[in-house]
Amino acid sequence: MADAPVTKPRWARLGWVLFVLAGSFLAWRIVMLGMANQHAQELDDPEAALGWYARHPGANLEIGLREKNPDIAIDHLRRAIDANPSDGRAYAALGRLLEARGEAEQARQAMETAARLSPQRSDVQMEVAGYWMRQGDLDRALAHWNAVLRQREDVRARVFPELLQLAGDPTHHAAFLTLLKQPVPWWPAFFIYAATKAPDADTVRMLFSLQQGGPNASTPEMLRAHLARLQKEGAWMEAWFAWLNSLTKEQIGKLGYLYNGSFEAPISNLGFDWIVQKHPAVSLDTTATYETSGERALRVSFRGLRVKFEHLHQYLMLPPGTFYLQGRVRPDNLQAAQGMQWALYCLGNNEPVAVTDRFRGSDQWTRFRTEFSIPPSGCPVQMLRLELAGTIRLDFDANGTIWFDNLGIEQLR
Predict the structure, then answer these.
(1) β strands within 275-348, DSSP E
(2) Looking at 246, 265, 284, which one is the last position of a domain?
(3) Nearest to residue 65, comparing CAs of 36, 42, 40, 102?
(4) Which class for 81: exposed (0-12), middle (13-18), buried (19 or more C-beta within 10 A)?
(5) Are 209 and 288 in a shared domain?
(6) Long-range CB contact pairs, 201-209, < 8 A, 24+
(7) Tens of pLDDT along 30-88?
(8) Which of 51, 82, 115, 354 is the Cys-Cys partner for 128 at CB 3.0 to 4.6 Å?
(9) Are residues 319 and 403 both part of a single domain?
């Protein structure tokens, strides 16, 4: 007897139909979202994207940012938030529009939400910083600028001028002091910018004093910029005390009319230490050699190229009176038509008040001494400079090496 045909129950056939329908719907939704994404992202056509999917968050956000009518823009931004409530950009844009419409509390909530959702997005943090500036809350604005500047060096050119303008107002100093209670990695770069660009040197003084004693203590680069600005302003005594405060007790104990004349300490290249200007035709360093009084001496080596060498100097503040400059020198096959010399100038005057003997050729260590006088007026600051002597271009063709040690300045009693 033949088996009776097996008939599938109706619920099984219904399940299969539902499965097919669900698959078709899913496929259509994938196509729809794909087309919406393509229009929104690749084709930059958010309106067409909304035609495929009205709740597309990116398209609604883009229209909300572009739309001139604030009511329409707010509607699209709220749709974007409904579809993707984790995007801080939509909240920031919504907050700006609500602020303009006078809805202060809702604007504040939107901005705070934007900052919380997008701590790593510089555009959002910049928008929130601008909001707090318009509200007159510099403390909160600085906190958001800080978040941006920690991540993005490229925005410094945009933010630093505004920060400098704010720093020029004494009513804002408390906010900067609050900021500097925490480590601020971009602060050295800002201070150097301010020291160079500030219209008023008092702004630089204020910023320098605010950072003292906290986690953003002055770096050598910052001190160099600070001293350079004070010197540019003619505040030489103030610059000298600022430099003095940066020295250790041991360094202060070795102070004289000339600093680090033994070249035992590394050249810091700032303040009233030796200042070195680099040049490819010459190398200048301190290193060990024979018959020095200590462990190091100054070595200047020329590479056979033409250079009007005057690339090592030190600022001095000698009182009026009679002095002598002394030291030890050892030329080592130094080939220079007129040789090398030390010259002392009153700052701003091209005529030296003292010039040493000239050194060239080869020799053992020898001593030199030059007497000079500082006039009673017109010479409060001086510059001692090592230079190639000469008047014509051929005089500045140099090759070989020269050493110096035990430089000092003493006053004649």
Answers:
(1) 275-276, 282-287, 297-306, 312-316, 321-336, 340-346
(2) 246
(3) 40
(4) buried
(5) no
(6) 201/229, 201/230, 201/233, 201/235, 203/164, 203/167, 203/168, 204/229, 204/230, 206/167, 206/170, 206/173, 207/167, 207/176, 208/242
(7) 434 444 344 334 335 555 555 445 556 666 667 767 777 878 878 778 888 878 888 88
(8) 115
(9) yes
